Amino acid sequence: MSAPDPAEWAEIAPHPGDRDLPAGRHELHRDRLLTAIARESRTPSAPRAVRRPALALAALVLVAAAGAGLAVSSGDEPTAAPQSPQASRSAARLPPPGAVAKIRAYGTVRHLTDSADLVVRGEVVSVADGRSVYRVAEVLYRAPVAPVATEIMVGTESAGSPGRPTVLYLALSDPQARVYAPLSGDFGIFDLAGETATSRSATMSVTGLRAEDATGAGRAFVTTLTELRQLASERG
Description:
Distance between the termini: 141 Å
Number of helices: 6
Number of strands: 8
Strand order of the largest sheet: 1-2-3-5-4
Shape: rod-shaped
Low-confidence stretches: 47-51, 58-63, 68-102
Largest sheet: 5 strands, mixed, barrel
Radius of gyration: 51 Å
Helix content: 25-40%
Order of helices and strands: HHHHHEEEEEEEEH
């Protein structure tokens, strides 16, 4: 079958002729076309649409972190720098203000001698207002910072009854007032009977001269004044 002749086509489907759009249709189609182009330009492509939520989430995290840092640093109190382990340990060892120190248990006379600011032999002269006036007959040991006179003030009434000879192991408890205190209460007090020195308390007592003796626990320790002098001279 042969293709129809162009002339036949003209008879079958004559040319409609030039037609123009009604008035206003050009403007309508132009506006629709521009609207479609603008909508396509505003519509993001698929890859960018995937990236934007991730970027927005990262931005929110940064803003939240910055806000938290600002809230911490803008408080009424300044933020303290972290302490070093050494400073923390030192702070942990400090007692709270106004705390009363615990009584230290001394095991030997050497411990007492090495800890004392003043070791004296003498007797109590008078007791008043919780303090004792102590007359010094002999100084066995004196630290350079410890003032001493013929009479000293001991900040306790338990140093002994007036006229009773003793040996006291003392700490300078108030340097300005020059007031002393026996080391750990009765640990630092020895009663004298001639040349024999006996610890004041059986429960608060050393157990040896230079080394502790477990068999002496719970008993008053007995030694001689000569031994006490010797230990004091060893400290120098």
